[in-house]
């Protein structure tokens, strides 16, 4: 095993910070993210408020730390939905009869014709805004990519010697899927998922920024970015720090995915 | 003829530099740098000759509005403020008001009330034609009133304003008689509003969608194009002959055209003004007003809207606010003053009245609205909301003390939305679970129509104290043809109805003023409303724009006398 480089450790450190923030926010910032203090509004970063305060005098550091859970959770859940759907569509296409493969492949291709965020917006237009629908929307939007990857993996594994051997030995369909095909698909998928989480976090924040996800005053990075936008010319810290949190978390998961990818390849 | 006592405060004024707090200084330094950069790269040099020169004709003025884009440019349909803003440029009313609030001639030159108060005669100007060539005559007025009152039009504001008009007849070509079901002390004030402005009868006969797209009036400009979600183009009416009696002398309109752009994002709107891309903006935000103070190329026009103040209406028609104690508890638990201080940077003053500060008959009662958490808790305990759940919200019979609060993001500026969040936070201390539901105008209207709200902030602009009748008479619980009902607090008190009806019928100024004072006290004492501040109406404009003024009627800006000094 090679020694981890800075590019590999930095994302882990950043993610560890955000994961701790998400799991136990009070360890880092014990305050209430919704506690207002109107007469201490619009304060620039200082010793008392390291990242400043927002328009209602809420502490921005506390809000970013407490906002990690909803912001990351939406990203992770959305990816889970996308992967789940992708697996079903991909396996159905890769293992099913030819007509089913053709149908599901065409369906995935139609979804591919829409840019991901547009697909998410379309879903929200139908289902209405809110944190649950925006999570599902992002999940749906990422599903086609996973589906295509899973299908091609399944197709190549299906024709491999050990699967044919399992068939000859008379192993059932489920056993072949669970013992032989899925394990070989998940290795590749895992790397892609790490890359995808970062993207999902950005998309979920984008939807909150547009007022379609988590609504104010909840501490969520996209929503914070949105409420600070009005004051961007006067009070930069209201948008800068939530934006930084989004960039850092997305960059960290993506870098982590990259290094995992190269490790998988070299091993 | 003037019923309204004079009110110097109605006059729209340009605000001079105000002091600002040290807390905002650091941020301002940064915004100052940004602005300097914008101006250096922009193309809006300040006027060299100071604006004392004679008006210059020509040029295109770009106006950026932050109000919602109207769904119909004919303000008879529905009837909201975004429509009034743009319609002021192309439609005119029978009468207007001057800066002191006195009724003055506009399309009608004189008028008289019958002895019994049941009919009014209006004499029309005889040289006015609509921009499609139709003459303005008694028949045209008749057609307009019929249009507003036709349920198919779907009018709400205009429909309510003409509620007592039972018939209109042409006495001669230029004299028109209104007959009323009861005397109406507010008739002239009602007729001064853009929602009952005069349109060409031939144009009104067209399909509703067509008239919505290109209404035809007698005003200084003509609607020539409507590029939805982007802008409306208005061009000069070269045959314009009918300015209101208080218009400046001159041979305006001077502008060739107006581009009326929709720029809903406040930061973008201000940046566009500061860079010289647009000439006038409305709905200027408090932080922008402070920043503009330091900018020599920008000026402010502050014109609070008449009618109601900006206030929260507590829906007394359904639980939990059908209990007066719970209403009082909510109002006592809301810390409004600190929020206004911090969010509005001194650009808005707290109101304790149902009426705008420009309404001389407004009654203020600050004692009723003291922030008092202890009292709020006592009231809720006494009202049976004794338990609290794990989240700290009060519970009674297994029901949480939930308050649904739909917020129209088209009507409530960001600072106001933040104020609502603060009210949400402070009332939580008393155990209220306030659920803010931000949405666009159509979602918001739908929530109100379905009676699925407990608190709402609904601006209502009308000239004169008769707005109280529209907002708090029990008749206002019945929806107007548009589906909108104005009595959102759902106040249903026979004695209040009597007072408001009587006040709308008496012509004695003192008696009228007393009746409205009694009526307002009932509304305030019943904790139906939580007044916040005047309906904010701040315009910022480039110093190159001369002759811009707000109409003394509903405070919409008029560009009839405006010209560009550049």
Automatic annotation (TrEMBL), chain A:
<keyword id="KW-0472">Membrane</keyword>
<feature type="domain" description="ABC transmembrane type-1">
    <location>
        <begin position="68"/>
        <end position="257"/>
    </location>
</feature>
<dbReference type="Pfam" id="PF00528">
    <property type="entry name" value="BPD_transp_1"/>
</dbReference>
<dbReference type="GO" id="GO:0055085">
    <property type="term" value="P:transmembrane transport"/>
</dbReference>
<keyword id="KW-1003">Cell membrane</keyword>
<feature type="transmembrane region" description="Helical">
    <location>
        <begin position="181"/>
        <end position="204"/>
    </location>
</feature>
<keyword id="KW-0813">Transport</keyword>
<feature type="transmembrane region" description="Helical">
    <location>
        <begin position="12"/>
        <end position="29"/>
    </location>
</feature>
<keyword id="KW-0812">Transmembrane</keyword>
<dbReference type="InterPro" id="IPR000515">
    <property type="entry name" value="MetI-like"/>
</dbReference>
<comment type="similarity">
    <text>Belongs to the binding-protein-dependent transport system permease family.</text>
</comment>
<protein>
    <submittedName>
        <fullName>Peptide/nickel transport system permease protein</fullName>
    </submittedName>
</protein>
<feature type="transmembrane region" description="Helical">
    <location>
        <begin position="132"/>
        <end position="150"/>
    </location>
</feature>
<feature type="transmembrane region" description="Helical">
    <location>
        <begin position="107"/>
        <end position="126"/>
    </location>
</feature>
<feature type="transmembrane region" description="Helical">
    <location>
        <begin position="235"/>
        <end position="257"/>
    </location>
</feature>
<dbReference type="GO" id="GO:0005886">
    <property type="term" value="C:plasma membrane"/>
</dbReference>
<dbReference type="InterPro" id="IPR035906">
    <property type="entry name" value="MetI-like_sf"/>
</dbReference>
<feature type="transmembrane region" description="Helical">
    <location>
        <begin position="72"/>
        <end position="95"/>
    </location>
</feature>
<keyword id="KW-1133">Transmembrane helix</keyword>
<dbReference type="InterPro" id="IPR050366">
    <property type="entry name" value="BP-dependent_transpt_permease"/>
</dbReference>
UniProtKB/TrEMBL annotation, chain B:
<feature type="domain" description="Solute-binding protein family 5">
    <location>
        <begin position="103"/>
        <end position="472"/>
    </location>
</feature>
<dbReference type="GO" id="GO:1904680">
    <property type="term" value="F:peptide transmembrane transporter activity"/>
</dbReference>
<dbReference type="InterPro" id="IPR030678">
    <property type="entry name" value="Peptide/Ni-bd"/>
</dbReference>
<keyword id="KW-0732">Signal</keyword>
<dbReference type="InterPro" id="IPR000914">
    <property type="entry name" value="SBP_5_dom"/>
</dbReference>
<dbReference type="InterPro" id="IPR039424">
    <property type="entry name" value="SBP_5"/>
</dbReference>
<comment type="similarity">
    <text>Belongs to the bacterial solute-binding protein 5 family.</text>
</comment>
<dbReference type="Pfam" id="PF00496">
    <property type="entry name" value="SBP_bac_5"/>
</dbReference>
<protein>
    <submittedName>
        <fullName>Peptide/nickel transport system substrate-binding protein</fullName>
    </submittedName>
</protein>
<dbReference type="GO" id="GO:0043190">
    <property type="term" value="C:ATP-binding cassette (ABC) transporter complex"/>
</dbReference>
<dbReference type="GO" id="GO:0030313">
    <property type="term" value="C:cell envelope"/>
</dbReference>
<dbReference type="GO" id="GO:0015833">
    <property type="term" value="P:peptide transport"/>
</dbReference>
<dbReference type="GO" id="GO:0042597">
    <property type="term" value="C:periplasmic space"/>
</dbReference>
<keyword id="KW-0813">Transport</keyword>
<feature type="region of interest" description="Disordered">
    <location>
        <begin position="1"/>
        <end position="22"/>
    </location>
</feature>
């Amino acid at each position: 095993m090679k020694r981890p480089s800075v590019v590999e450790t930095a994302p882990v450190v950043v993610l560890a910070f955000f994961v701790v923030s998400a799991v136990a926010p009070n360890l880092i910032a014990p305050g209430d993210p919704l506690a207002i203090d109107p007469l201490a509004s619009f304060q620039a970063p200082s010793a008392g408020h390291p990242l400043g305060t927002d328009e209602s005098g809420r502490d921005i550091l506390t809000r970013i730390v407490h906002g990690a859970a909803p912001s990351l959770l939406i990203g992770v859940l959305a990816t889970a939905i996308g992967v789940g759907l992708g697996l079903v569509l991909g396996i159905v296409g890769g293992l099913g009869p030819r007509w089913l493969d053709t149908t599901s492949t065409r369906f995935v291709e139609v979804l591919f014709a829409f840019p991901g965020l547009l697909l998410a917006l379309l879903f929200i237009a139908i289902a209405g805004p809110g944190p649950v629908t925006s999570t599902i929307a992002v999940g749906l939007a990422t599903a086609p990519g996973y589906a295509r990857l899973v299908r091609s993996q399944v197709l190549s594994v299906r024709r491999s010697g050990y699967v044919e051997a399992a068939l000859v030995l008379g192993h059932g369909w489920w056993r072949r899927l669970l013992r032989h095909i899925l394990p070989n698909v998940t290795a590749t998928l895992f790397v892609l998922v790490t890359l995808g989480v970062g993207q999902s976090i950005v998309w979920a924040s984008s939807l909150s920024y547009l007022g379609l996800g988590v609504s104010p005053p909840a501490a969520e990075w996209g929503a914070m970015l949105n409420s600070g936008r009005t004051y961007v010319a006067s009070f930069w810290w209201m948008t800068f720090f939530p934006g930084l949190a989004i960039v850092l978390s997305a960059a960290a998961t993506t870098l982590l995915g990259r290094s995992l990818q190269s490790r998988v390849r070299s091993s | 003829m003037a019923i309204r006592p004079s009110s110097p405060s109605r006059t729209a004024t340009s605000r001079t530099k105000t002091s600002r707090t040290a807390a905002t200084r650091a941020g301002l330094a940064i915004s100052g740098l940004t602005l300097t950069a914008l101006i250096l790269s922009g193309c809006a040099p300040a006027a060299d000759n100071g604006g004392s020169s004679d008006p210059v004709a020509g040029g295109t003025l770009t106006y950026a509005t932050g109000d919602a884009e109207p769904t119909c440019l004919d303000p008879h349909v529905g009837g909201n403020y975004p429509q009034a803003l743009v319609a002021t440029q192309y439609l005119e009313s029978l009468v207007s008001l001057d800066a002191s609030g006195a009724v003055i001639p506009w399309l009608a030159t004189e008028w008289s009330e019958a002895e019994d108060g049941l009919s009014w005669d209006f004499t029309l100007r005889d040289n006015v034609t609509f921009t499609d060539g139709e003459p303005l005559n008694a028949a045209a007025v008749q057609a307009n009133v019929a249009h507003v009152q036709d349920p198919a039009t779907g009018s709400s504001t205009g429909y309510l304003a003409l509620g007592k008009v039972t018939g209109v007849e042409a006495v001669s070509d230029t004299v028109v008689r209104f007959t009323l079901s009861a005397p109406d002390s507010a008739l002239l004030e009602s007729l001064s509003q853009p929602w009952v402005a005069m349109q060409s009868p031939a144009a009104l006969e067209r399909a509703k969608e067509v008239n919505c797209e290109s209404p035809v009036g007698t005003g200084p400009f003509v609607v020539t194009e409507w590029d939805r979600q982007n802008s409306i183009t208005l061009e000069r009416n070269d045959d314009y002959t009918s300015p209101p009696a208080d218009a400046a002398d001159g041979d305006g309109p001077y502008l060739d055209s107006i581009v009326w752009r929709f720029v809903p994002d406040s930061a973008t709107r201000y940046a566009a003004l500061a860079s010289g891309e647009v000439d006038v903006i409305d709905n200027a935000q408090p932080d922008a007003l402070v920043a503009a103070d330091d900018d020599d190329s920008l000026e402010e026009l502050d014109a609070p809207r008449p009618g109601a103040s900006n206030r929260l209406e507590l829906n007394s028609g359904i639980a939990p606010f059908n209990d007066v104690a719970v209403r009082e508890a909510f109002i006592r638990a809301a810390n409004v003053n600190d929020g206004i201080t911090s969010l509005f940077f001194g650009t808005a003053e707290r109101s304790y009245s149902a009426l705008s500060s420009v309404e001389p008959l407004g009654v203020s009662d600050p004692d009723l609205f003291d922030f008092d958490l202890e009292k709020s808790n006592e009231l809720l305990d006494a009202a049976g909301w004794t338990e609290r759940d794990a989240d700290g919200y009060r519970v009674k019979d297994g029901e949480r003390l939930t308050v649904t609060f739909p917020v129209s993001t088209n009507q409530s500026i960001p600072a106001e939305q933040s104020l609502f969040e603060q009210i949400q936070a402070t009332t939580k201390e008393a155990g209220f679970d306030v659920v803010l539901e931000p949405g666009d105008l159509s979602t918001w209207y739908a929530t109100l129509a379905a009676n699925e709200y407990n608190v709402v902030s609904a601006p209502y602009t009308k000239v004169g104290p008769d707005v109280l009748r529209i907002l708090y008479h029990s008749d206002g619980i019945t929806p107007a043809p548009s589906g909108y009902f104005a009595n959102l607090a759902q106040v249903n008190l026979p004695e209040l109805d009597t007072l408001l009806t009587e006040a709308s019928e008496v012509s004695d100024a003192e008696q009228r003023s007393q009746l409205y004072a009694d009526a307002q006290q009932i509304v305030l004492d019943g904790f139906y409303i939580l007044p916040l501040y005047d309906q904010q109406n701040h315009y910022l404009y480039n110093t190159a724009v001369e002759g811009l003024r707000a109409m003394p009627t509903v405070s919409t800006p008029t560009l009839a006398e405006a010209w560009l000094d550049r």
